[in-house]
């Protein structure tokens, strides 16, 4: 009798385990086993962050989902995003413009701005440049401002070399260019002859080969090329500040050259395609770690969680 009871108990427990496993399996299939594609384009500055998140997502979360991340530039990316059958996300190193919002409204697209990290505009010079490692904010402005008329390094400071300054930066497709033009130069014309490039790797190469060069781009590109370039410490009025993850904060010492970076989500695509929404939620939940790994200052957990909670509500 005792053996019979034990046998019955074993059968019942086995049935419970099988039932529980089956329920768990069904839950995983509907909640996490996704397939399809997610298309991301836009900012070259934000590219390293989103590419890292995409790679981690495909490896660790959804091996049957293909997340394609490109880097046409913020403005060029918005043109692709704000079109019939456009991309799912547009990375941006600036806020969406009023005319871009109007285009979205005309197309009937629901667009959600997602703030993902903080970036610092970093001035970079050639490794052999040992005179301009520290500049004031006004000196940076004068170097890039057409009306300032500073052509030689000695025009910035008399003890600097009497050599022509060669200036570099990203072209008009990039939000970094627009931020620099609008927020740092106060929408005044850039110096004539500035070499503007689409590809950030080209900028790195050009500055690394030109002793008299100075250029600008996001901090992450400097971090990944410290062996080729030197970052300029900027004096905003209280002494030189080195761009770093510690100083690049909204209220930090590098704040005048700090800006938020974003990805914009097509909400209609997110509601229609579970993998798009799932990647969006994953990106926000993991943005802080990926940011630090790719040269961005992370947002607070509370700020990221609030945005992730909103996305959860779209399910």
UniProtKB/TrEMBL annotation:
The task this protein performs is described as:
Part of the ABC transporter complex PstSACB involved in phosphate import.
Q: Which InterPro entries match?
A: PBP_domain, Phos-bd, Phosphate_ABC_transporter
Oligomer status and interactors: The complex is composed of two ATP-binding proteins (PstB), two transmembrane proteins (PstC and PstA) and a solute-binding protein (PstS).
Which Pfam family, giving just one, matches this sequence? PBP_like_2
**Record-level GO cellular component terms:** plasma membrane
- Source species: Litchfieldia salsa
Tell me, in one coarse class, where this protein mainly resides.
Answer: membrane
Protein's name according to its UniProt entry:
Phosphate-binding protein
Signal peptide region:
1-21
Q: From the UniProt record, which GO molecular function terms apply?
A: phosphate ion binding
Entry's PANTHER family? PERIPLASMIC PHOSPHATE BINDING COMPONENT OF PHOSPHATE ABC TRANSPORTER (PTHR30570), PHOSPHATE-BINDING PROTEIN PSTS (PTHR30570:SF1)
Per the record, membrane topology reads: Lipid-anchor
Highest taxon above the source species? Bacteria
